[in-house]
Amino acid sequence: xxxxxxxxxxxAALALGLYALFIxxxxxxxxxxxxxDENPLLAQANFVGLANYRxxxxxxxxxxxxxxxxxxxxxxxxxANAAGIGFALLLNRTSLSFRAMRTVAFxxxxxxxxIVGFVWRYILAQDGILNEVLVRTGIVDRPITWLGSxxxxxxxxxxxxxxxxxxFTTVVHVAALQSIPVELHQAAIVDGAGPWQRFRRIxxxxxxxxxxxxxxxxxxxxxxxxxxxxxxTSGGPANATQSTALYIVKLAFTDDRFGYASGVAMLLLVxxxxxxxxxxxxLRRREVDL
Amino acid sequence: MxxxxxxxxxxxxxxxxxxxxxxxxxxxxxxxxxxTYLTFETPSLTASFWDTSIANASKKVSGVTIKKLxxxxxxxxxxxxxxxxxxxxxDLLQSITPSTFAQAGLLKPYxxxxxxxxxxxPLGNAYKGKVYIPPTNSQIIPMVFYNKTLFARAxxxxxxxxxxxxxxxxxxxxxxxxxxxxxxxxxxxxxxMPLSGxxxxxxxxxxxxxxxxxxxxxxxxxxxxxxxxxxxYRTLVKNGYFETGALGVKYADxxxxxxxxxxxxxxxxxxxxxxxxxxxxxDFGSFMTPTDDGSLVVxxxxxxxxxxxxxTAAPDKATEFAQAWxxxxxxxxxxxxxxxxxxxxxxxxxxxxxxxVTQVFKDSYAYVGEQNNKVSSFGWATNDDSMPSGLNDAxxxxxxxxxxxxxxxxxxxxxxxxxxAATK
Lengths: 290, 424
Description:
The structure holds two protein chains of two kinds.
Chain A: H1 6-33, H2 51-57, H3 60-91, H4 96-110, H5 113-124, H6 129-136, H7 150-178, H8 182-190, H9 195-223, H10 227-232, H11 244-253, H12 258-289
Helix pairs in contact in A: 1-12, 3-7, 3-9, 4-7, 7-9, 9-12, 11-12
Chain B: H1 2-21, E1 33-39, H2 47-59, E2 64-70, H3 76-85, E3 92-94, H4 98-103, E4 107-108, H5 112-118, E5 137-140, E6 143-147, H6 148-153, H7 163-175, E7 179-182, H8 188-191, H9 193-204, H10 210-215, H11 224-238, H12 251-259, E8 263-268, E9 284-287, E10 297-303, E11 306-309, H13 315-327, H14 329-339, E12 342-343, H15 359-369, E13 373-376, H16 391-404, H17 408-422
Parallel strand pairs in B: 1-2, 1-3, 7-8, 10-13
Antiparallel strand pairs in B: 3-11, 4-11, 5-10, 5-12, 6-8, 6-9
Helix pairs in contact in B: 2-13, 9-11, 16-17
């Protein structure tokens, strides 16, 4: 394909067309709906200007869900990436068994979020496997209510999400590790550098671009988390684990406030964009410093 | 030219696919029609039950094919709304809350003469004077089920009639080392059952119009009488009459815990009668949530069949099928035995349904036929007393929150705010 080739133009036009059809148009429609009082059951919707956005200021449930979502995204991203780096260092070998273990580590990421949620629901249930082990080994006297108290349910959602995401962060960091030239480590060893110095001066700086990608994608994934929570806690107890994505669906299809739900979706989009761009910018600067 | 033909073929295929996704195909010259029917599954209402019931009703309607849709959870209202939003509103919708959909003009009312001719309480679940779901059966939500053996072990000889007696019973059970009340608090609707019982007894028992008054803005959740009733639930929690980890107990587990004798009482809808173990059914009894003065209040809900879409392309076939399903004796037998449904067909006794039921079913069913203070079941009625869209969820969340929080006033204020937002 040459520059100015009509086929190249056609491919680019198709790609742009598909992007516009599946991303730009729905986004535009959502933005428009956020300015209406659309109800999924009614054919007509009225233009209400910025009323939906003004209502958000006084919406305590939105504040709670957004706070939960941001805290969850921050904590899980931190834990999953720290664990991912750790596992990547352990699994960064070339033998068949290590390659197999890397596949196993990635498995949670491959599973459907709904299946993950249901499996963990059985593990964390009052009479689930975890409580069974804890009680039988005498670590606790009585079963812990992992999913029944607001604080522990939030922790449980974070634990499961981190478990899933760690598969992804591990693979990204393994790939980043494998791109580090072996000669760098060999030269450092000749120069008398110890394992910590090699990690601090070679591995960590060379991992930084991978970490930037991993952290950014982790944050975006967590900010729109829906499936795992639906299957694990349904947003309960008492809405303690209701993420903003869950809240949007509830507003649209339980409360019949499709227009307002679109407004909250736009807000989530802006928050996600701001968080992702800020963190990416910060990490890119850090890559240079390292 | 060749490209045009290819494009036309793709467009035709796409349109055919879209047509396949949409609801009813119209009644053709042959009189046949395909109808979509939204159902839901529970431990009692299994896939097999729906398949059999659909097959039986289909036999009575010529030229109809039913395409069963299953809601992904028991919240069929939310799923029906999703289907409506995507242009796939079903032709028939089982056990939805008609009010929201009827307001939007999405439902077709049943012929009142047919309803009057067949059912004991023709207007039992009417919304604004029209029947959108035939009142085929009724439920009491909740009842208090109890284990007679555990009561006897704690030295309790009779079920309580007043709230004071109820607290004494709970205390005796706790002292005897028995968990007084089972709660499947992991499921929001199940977590709300004790509160529904207390509110139905104390608030609706004294003012059966309370929900209508709430719509009219004459009363609030924050009113002193409501807060006093809710405080009773807090008393049960604070006194340790539920398990500490009750909010972590799944609904299905709460049933097995109670039937296995791990707790002495269980506040649940009368559909629990379908889960009473047949081999020791006589161990179980039932009573209504006690009131302060011992007066009997029965929280009652009528429904049981399907609504018909106003937009169906085959209204006659849809109505024929719905009526056939609503009168099918096979459905009644399955619903009575498996789901504890109280049948509401005119001119029939329990014996006419050829069912085998337990004594606790018969005793519970007696409340339906007796003259007593029946009120709309709080949060469950689907008639004019149904709550506005989204309120049930807010109410369930408040019930769960009140399990761990003493802030009754705060939770009631939240419910008022949610109600105001929903009816704005």
